[in-house]
Write a structure and sequence with these properties.
Radius of gyration: 22 Å
Helix content: 10-25%
Shape: elongated
Number of helices: 2
Order of helices and strands: HEEEEEEEEH
Largest sheet: 8 strands, mixed
Distance between the termini: 83 Å
Number of strands: 8
Structural class: alpha/beta
Strand order of the largest sheet: 7-1-4-3-2-6-5-8
Length: about 150
């Protein structure tokens, strides 16, 4: 083979390898490059201590989405934008709770479905939320006799 052919094939191989590494890093990191499929819903919490962007959203232990954005709103509440997978339907009276995997594991959002026939549409709001359990606050109250 000519020198040009070998260099050309080597270049194509390197470019293909870089493309594959980029794809794997995006796919394994569970990031969305072009918007992805699904829709967003909003939930407000008083305390989401330990929750991060990218945290899991589960229903009955099954991953149905991820936390897309965390902001502080004008009422000093945490405003979460949750990206739900395509085809997931949430009732209007569903409850979103901040939970912990294991005793000191990662925080995630658990959605408990409701019984309403009305569903939350794109950019809708989950009205019922439960904050994370703050173990430090509970110990403090126990020590100072407030429980």
């Amino acid at each position: 083979m000519k020198r040009f052919d070998i260099d050309f094939l080597t270049g194509l191989f390197v470019i293909f390898g870089i493309f594959c590494l980029g794809y794997l890093s995006v796919h394994l990191g569970k990031k969305e490059v072009l918007g992805g499929s699904g829709y967003n819903v909003i939930a407000f919490f008083s305390n989401i201590s330990g929750l991060r962007v990218g945290s899991l959203v589960e229903i009955a232990g099954v991953e149905v989405g991820r936390v897309k954005k965390i902001e502080l709103d004008k009422n000093y509440q945490a405003k979460l934008t949750i990206r739900l997978n395509k085809g997931i339907i949430i009732q209007e009276d569903a409850i979103a709770s901040v939970k912990t995997k294991g005793l000191i594991g990662d925080k995630f959002i658990q959605i408990t479905p409701g019984g309403s026939e009305k569903i939350i549409t794109k950019d809708g709001k989950i009205r019922e939320t439960q904050d994370t359990f703050d173990i430090e606050q509970a110990i403090s109250q126990l020590m100072f006799g407030k429980i």
